[in-house]
Structures are given as structure tokens and as C-alpha cells.
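During the reporting period the student researcher (J.K.) took over the structure-prediction task from the postdoctoral fellow and processed the backlog of single-chain submissions. One of the processed entries is reproduced below for the supervisory committee.
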Amino acid sequence: MSRTALIGAKILFGLLIFVFIGILLYSGGIAKIYSSVYASPASHLAPNLCDANPATAARNIIEWERVNINNVIGKSDLCLKVASLDDVSWTYRSRCGACGEFSYLFTDLARACNLTVMTVNNPGEDHQWNAVLINGSWITVDSTQPNESHANYGYDVPDDFYENNSYAGAWAKNLSYVYGELPNGSRIDLTARYSTTGNVSVYINRDGALVYVISNSYVPRKPTGLKCTPINHYCNFNLGNTSYEFIAVGPGWLDYDSVLVNVTTNSATNITLAPTFRPLERWGALAQTIG
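J.K. obtained the following C-alpha cells:
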């Protein structure tokens, strides 16, 4: 083989390796390979964290996460780029994560301690936390807030903590839609627990459309995770106090004018989404918005 051919082969091999690593990073493959080597951390951590008192066990888990997991929320970090959100073994081994990683790791450890726990999701404002069933009541747990006295150091966080700007360390953001995922996989609407709400009734004069609710509270046009197939041409939403865009799609190539709405406490708003036709490039932008 000539020297030129050898150099070309080495360059090609290097490019293939580079592409392979890129695919692994993009798909979470490194995290999957890494995690397959290690079992869930719950199996060996639980004996040191669990307690006969469920409140003590929950606090032990919060404290363990505070000491051992680097909170990289709001930062660009490799650990968030290669791991799937609920891959607790990767979070444990990489020792870093944001709210979603903290929440899923808390869930895994809490269940190992026989606690009844659910994840609490707020997609529109991009946050996630937990609730633990203690003596028949759901107690809010946010293990990303272990240093905040106004959040009770992450255990029994006040319901208004995320919206009340008088609390040190609070978000002071209006929450759009909050839901809990129960151990059996079902969802419950928790918006009214963490925010004051108003109602929006959406009318569409055609069957087969999907209505999406987009929040403009935290960042512009952030999907809330709410969508609805109209029943008798109507969708009804109870939402937190902030601004929204309502979008409907389908059926076929039919599109609808979007409508902006500001929801306030106990407000009742009626809107109509009127059908229209859009150029094809509209669909790419719309699909990116609603996910």
C-alpha cells in the first residue's frame, strides 16, 4: 500500500470513529452501555437511607442527593447530553443532573425504601419534582432545593413556593399545568394545588382536530404537555395564571388560526379556533413547537 493510500485509510478510519462516537452521544448510547454495567443504585444505597419513619427516609434521600449529585440545572453539561432523563444508574455514576434526573433518582431510592412516591411534572416551565405519601397526605419533595429554608430544605415544600416571589430561592414563575404520575402509571392534574387557576373553553367546528396548549410563561412557546380531542366540538382546560397560545391541527392538511389568552384567577374565557389553510412550511415549524 502506498504512503498516500495509507494516510487516506487512517483518515477514513478516524472519521468513522468520530461519526460512531457522535451517534452514541446523540442517541444516549454511551449512557446505555455505561448503565448496563451497573445495576440501579437503590440496591446498595437503600439500607443506609431507609428508615421506619417514612419522613426520615425521604429526608435521608434528599440529603444524599444534595451531597453526592452535582446540580447542573441551567448549565450545559455533558451528563445531560448523553443520558436519558430517567436513567438513574447513569445519574448515580456521573454524579450530576438537573431537576428531572434528581426526581427520577429520588423516585428509585424512595421505592426501594417502600415509600409511595410520584413524580410531579411541569413541562411548560421545565421543572420536575416529587410527592411522597406520608400518613395519608401527599408531601411535596424537591431534592433540587435542599439549601432553601423557605422550601423546608426540600421536604414538605410549601405549595406556593414556585410562584411566591417573597421566598428566597423561589422561581417566582407562574405555573401553567402541573400533573403527577402515580405508581400505577396514571396521571392526576395538580395545577390547582400549586397555582391559582382559570378556565378556557375552546370551540372548533370540525371533528378530528387536536388542540394543543402552549405556555408563554417561562420561555416563549413551551409545550405544556396538554392536548385534547374535542368532544362535541369543545375542549375545556383548567390552567394556571399565565399567558398561553392555543393551537389546533388536522385533520388532513387543515390548520387553524392560533389564539393568545391570558388566564387569571377564576377567569372563564371562551375562544374559537377558526380553520384556515397554511403553506407547507408552516407544518415543520408547528411540529417543532408542539413536539
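The committee noted the following: Residues 24-38 have pLDDT under 50 and may be disordered.
J.K. will present the remaining backlog at the next meeting.
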